[in-house]
Each structure stands twice: as C-alpha cells, then as structure tokens.
Specification:
Layout: E1 2-8, E2 11-20, H1 25-39, E3 43-54, H2 56-71, E4 75-79, H3 83-91, E5 99-101
Parallel strand pairs: 2-3, 3-4, 4-5
Antiparallel strand pairs: 1-2
Helix pairs in contact: 1-2
Length: about 100
C-alpha cells in the first residue's frame, strides 16, 4: 500500500494505492495523521482511485480519520471508490459520516 499526500491551502488529499488490510493500514494511518497534526486542515480527502482491495481495516482507517477531522471541526470526503468498495462503505454507514464523491 502506497499513500501519497498533497496539501493545498486548508485541504489535504491522501491518494491511496494498493491493498488496505491489517498489514498496511497502520502505516497509512500514521502518515495521514502526521500530516493532519502538522497542518490542521479544514478538509481531508481520501482518494481510493487506485485501491485494489479493502477489508475492514479500510473502514477503520476512514473512521479514525473522521474522528481526527471532527476534533478539528473539519470535514472528510471519500472519493473515487470502485462500485464494490462504495457498497462496503455505504453498508458500514460511512456515507453518514463523510461525503462520498465519485
């Protein structure tokens, strides 16, 4: 799993690439959280365009980043989900916490 992070103004975008599972989620969480702590953005965008697999660790990744953004009174957007991952996110209720954009 790769995670490239870009920031522009008060927006951080994390481009996720590969498989999100219990082996990879921790490193991604730490990388995104470090950027959130350094910048205190108003918006965090998690871009799933290049995610090829996701288990429940992906839900945990989103939930934790949602909580981080709530502490900053910020927002979380999830973008570019495959149809399968979008369905998993909706079944887990992520669409009630974050804005899902495709």
């Amino acid at each position: 799993m790769q995670c490239r992070i870009e920031s522009s103004g008060n927006i951080i975008t994390a481009y996720l690439d590969g498989e999100i599972d219990h082996h990879t989620a921790k490193d991604v969480r730490e990388k995104i959280d470090a950027q959130i702590m350094a910048q205190s953005p108003e918006l965090l965008v998690l871009d799933f365009r290049d995610v090829t697999f996701m288990d429940s660790s992906g839900i945990g990744l989103v939930m934790g980043r949602y909580k981080q953004m709530q502490l900053l009174s910020g927002q979380l957007h999830i973008s570019n989900l495959s149809p399968h991952i979008k369905k998993v996110m909706q079944l887990a209720g992520m669409d009630r916490l974050a804005t899902i954009k495709n």
